[in-house]
């Protein structure tokens, strides 16, 4: 059984259809990359999976259980799914470690003392040990984004969503964030990325989906999709972006 | 820019010479124009036909000196009323702001109440509220401590000011970007915890300068309670005025208010300027 399955997911904003019947299966431990032009629906799809946006139609199965049932309490679902955003969205009034400990403390009711070794371990693992007690505005973009990843990981999610997490970074800072993603993949995390980093998708993804106008036009292993795309739209998009 | 002073050494640069000259010129012009205005005021006002009478009844030193200590004592009443109203206003204002944004249907009555509160108390002049509550509620024939104008006057001020304060809190809450709420929710935090730990701390910080302005206004409006009884500074000044047939005590009262409000206003401006710098 797939870790996450989308069946006919439709998302509309007033009269504009952003996701137009999306089907997708993600196996446990897989890294799936969503590629496509801005506005293709990649980010909205991730927000729908995390129930930040209610969907109009379709089903989203997490471990075979539909989490898109209207009226379901989204809180329990979101605790199992981590999300990292393009603009980091760290809480600016808290230090890095407070950002990371807030949700485990409030949601899992675990005391600071108990969390400390575990959280410190996460910071160390991602090369952030020196920055634990800094505020977000004292960190570089790459460091902030890594803290945001640590913050999501501290909730021990079963699935991680990454919404163009390197798009707001200076080019020389992209590498350190991508390294974190590689580390996560090697540890067996199930991951879905909306990304413009074609090189990374090609090298690390287990599956790449090309989205256009809210539909998945083509999904394949990166080796196939990047070298011999079946759909002419995919070929045209790749020709434009890889130039 | 920063290295300029160090590099300049004994020989000032062309631009420094020019800027020094400009600065000297501006200083001289500012001093001359200020002097001219001050001289005009000092020469022209005393030549007005009623000046002698105004001076005797508003700026009488002897009256000032003899009433000032009494005024200061009465001002302590203002300070006390301010001191218990301000925290009450902050708490009630925050509760009303939160009530107005409550989403649970069970809390719908609270939303209506919050909206009615802001509409009514922002729409009625403060003095009217003070009169209506200050005279109206003790008029119910309440027993001894409960007919005190201090209680009901303070309640009137608290209700009025919390309506404004609530709106300022609300604007602060709305100014926190949606993405902060999304980040909090994506971590599995409840709406309540998102508000308490993520949204509110940022919102409150942003509106501190605006709330300081409300405190300054409250500080002055405490004097309105004099109309329903408490002998605070304005009332005390009125008593002295009648006793001495002289308006100087009012000037003394104004000076006492200014001693508090001017530093407070400057401090608020300083906070605002710092906040603007931080955001840019």
Task: Provide structural commentary.
Chain A is of the alpha/beta class. Helix content of chain A is 38%, strand content 25%. Chain A has a single domain, classed as P-loop containing nucleotide triphosphate hydrolases (Rossmann fold, 3-Layer(aba) Sandwich). Chain A contains nine helices and ten strands. In chain A, the strands form two sheets. Chain A has a six-stranded mixed beta sheet, with helices on both faces. Chain A has a four-stranded antiparallel beta sheet with strand order 2-1-4-5, covered by helices on one side. In chain A, helix 3 (96-107) packs across helix 4, helix 3 runs parallel beside helix 5 and helix 5 runs parallel beside helix 6. The termini of chain A are far apart. Chain B folds into two domains: 3-44; 67-279, MetI-like fold, CATH 1.10.3720. In chain B, helix 4 (61-100) runs antiparallel to helix 10 (233-244) and helix 6 (126-136) packs across helix 7. Chain B starts with a helix and ends with a helix. The A-B interface holds A 47, 50, 52, 74-76, 78-79, 81-83, 85, 87, 89-93, 102-103, 106-107, 151-152, 155 and B 179-180, 182-190, 193, 197-198, 201-202, 205.
């Amino acid at each position: 059984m797939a870790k996450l399955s989308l069946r006919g997911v439709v998302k509309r904003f007033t009269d504009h259809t952003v996701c137009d019947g999306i089907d997708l299966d993600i196996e446990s431990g897989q890294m799936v990359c969503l590629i496509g032009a801005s506005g293709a629906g990649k980010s909205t799809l991730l927000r729908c999976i995390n129930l930040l946006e209610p969907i109009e139609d379709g089903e989203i199965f997490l471990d075979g259980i539909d989490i898109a049932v209207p009226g379901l309490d989204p809180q329990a679902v979101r605790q199992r799914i981590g999300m990292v955003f393009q603009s980091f969205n760290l809480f600016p009034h808290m230090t890095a470690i407070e950002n990371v400990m807030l949700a485990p403390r409030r949601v899992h009711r675990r005391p600071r003392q108990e969390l400390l070794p575990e959280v410190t371990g996460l910071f160390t693992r991602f090369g952030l040990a020196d920055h634990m007690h800094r505020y977000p505005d004292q960190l570089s973009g790459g460091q902030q984004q890594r803290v945001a990843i640590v913050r999501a990981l501290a909730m021990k999610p079963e699935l991680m969503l990454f919404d163009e997490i390197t798009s707001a970074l200076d080019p020389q800072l992209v590498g350190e964030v991508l390294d974190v993603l590689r580390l996560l993949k090697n540890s067996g995390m199930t991951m879905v990325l909306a990304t413009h980093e074609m090189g990374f998708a090609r090298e690390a993804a287990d599956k790449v989906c090309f989205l256009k106008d809210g539909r998945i036009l083509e999904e394949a292993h990166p080796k196939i999709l990047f070298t011999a795309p079946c759909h002419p739209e995919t070929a045209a998009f790749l020709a434009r972006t890889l130039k | 820019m920063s290295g300029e002073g160090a590099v300049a050494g004994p020989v000032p640069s062309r631009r420094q010479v020019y800027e020094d000259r400009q600065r000297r010129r501006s200083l001289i012009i500012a001093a001359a124009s200020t002097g001219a205005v001050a001289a005009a005021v000092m020469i022209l006002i005393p030549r007005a036909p009623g000046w002698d009478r105004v001076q005797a009844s508003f700026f009488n030193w002897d009256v000032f000196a003899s009433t000032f200590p009494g005024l200061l004592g009465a001002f302590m009443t203002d300070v006390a009323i301010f001191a218990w109203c301000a925290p009450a206003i902050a708490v009630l204002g925050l509760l009303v702001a939160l009530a107005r944004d409550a989403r649970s249907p069970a809390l719908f009555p609270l939303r209506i109440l919050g909206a009615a509160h802001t509409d009514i108390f922002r729409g009625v002049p403060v003095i009217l509220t003070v009169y209506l509550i200050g005279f109206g509620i003790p008029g119910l024939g309440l027993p001894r401590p409960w007919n005190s104008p201090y209680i009901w006057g303070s309640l009137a001020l608290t209700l009025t000011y919390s309506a404004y304060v609530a709106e300022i809190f609300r604007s602060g809450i709305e100014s926190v970007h949606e993405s902060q709420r999304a980040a909090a929710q994506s971590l599995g935090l409840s709406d309540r915890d998102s508000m308490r730990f993520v949204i509110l701390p940022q919102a409150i910080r942003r509106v501190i300068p605006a709330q300081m302005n409300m405190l300054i206004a409250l500080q002055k409006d405490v004097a309105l309670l004099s109309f329903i009884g408490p002998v605070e500074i304005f009332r005390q000044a009125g008593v002295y005025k009648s006793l001495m047939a002289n308006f100087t005590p009012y000037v003394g009262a104004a000076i006492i208010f200014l001693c508090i409000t001017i530093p407070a206003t400057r401090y608020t401006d300083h906070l605002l300027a710092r906040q603007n710098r931080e955001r840019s």
